[in-house]
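Researcher: I'm preparing a figure for a lab meeting and need a structural model of a single chain. I don't have an experimental structure, so a prediction will have to do for now. The sequence is pasted below. Please return the structure as tokens so I can convert it later.
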Amino acid sequence: MTDLSTTLKESWALVEDRQDRLARHFYARLFLTDPQLRDLFPVQMDVQRNRLLGAIVSAVQHVDDAETLDGYLRELGRDHRKFHVTPQHYAQVKLALLDALRTCAGEDWSSVYEQAWNDVYDVISRTMIAGAAAETGPPYWHAEVLTHERRGADVAVFTCRPLQPLTFRAGQYVSLECAYQPRLWRTYSMANAPRADGTLEFHVRAVGGGWVSSALVRRLRPGDMLRLAAPMGSMTLEPQSRRDIVFVTGGTGLAPAKALLDELSRYNRTRWVHLFRGERRAGDFYDKDHLDALAETYPWLTIVRAVSDDPDTPVESGPVAEVVARHGPWNHHDFYVSGSAPMVNATLKQLSALRVPSTRIKYDAFTDA
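Model: Understood. Here is the structure written out token by token.
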């Protein structure tokens, strides 16, 4: 597998600085081959093009990690059921992808590279198709919005109830589509553990250029209908672990941590939990009162807040990753990290410097793109 990985990375280097051209060529070829496929995609294609490239890079980077890649691809196959994808579609995507890679690489492309991408794509498609075939639930769930609250200028917390039971674990996320931006799916974590009444809570921050996040914050109303795809993600509690826990969150990355706290509140008696929350300014800490009430109710919970751009506050100052490093020691803790991609990457780098084993770190990076 190492030779395949090396070949893929070498060939990807030929097109890495031409990613926009690669994506445009891929979709042009795909829609030319089958114009009906255009109806599966959103009107605005910029984000979709970025997602294609992200999936390609992820596959190339993890091709040596068979277990991780297999689990990721099976989940991706389950998730793609929401698009009503068929095995025939995978074949069409393969032809378009190889044509795009071949064209953008130019004369440096070789038959060795062609065969490597052909082989790895066959593995990807077989695994995704198997993941989809093993799923017995619906391709997506219809859910009614029950409540919608603004918790700041750009943050909303809303609840919804799927019309059919949706099984998930605390810490997972779903792709979500609303009627205000049809065919634009974005991932959001549930902010609660499974409830008897089946309701789900979501936290959303409207970001610049975020079509879906802006609609969910500013336009969504009780009574609106959503579509939710199959739950994904592995940022869940390890049932066998007895180690203490550290949550490191930024912005609405609080949501999965809050879901895991909800689960822990139902049975935890022995594990100490530290929740580190990072925001730019002190006024950005939505849900502060509720979290403080949790800390008063459960002695095992400690909350540490940090602001990066507002030093004249009573909370700690600096990026949340640096604040985590000031505390500790963290030699025997499980870590859960969630927030923006830059915040997650900075935290992972800091935890590596602190010699926290990667096997004890779970993370999710969130972006409206």
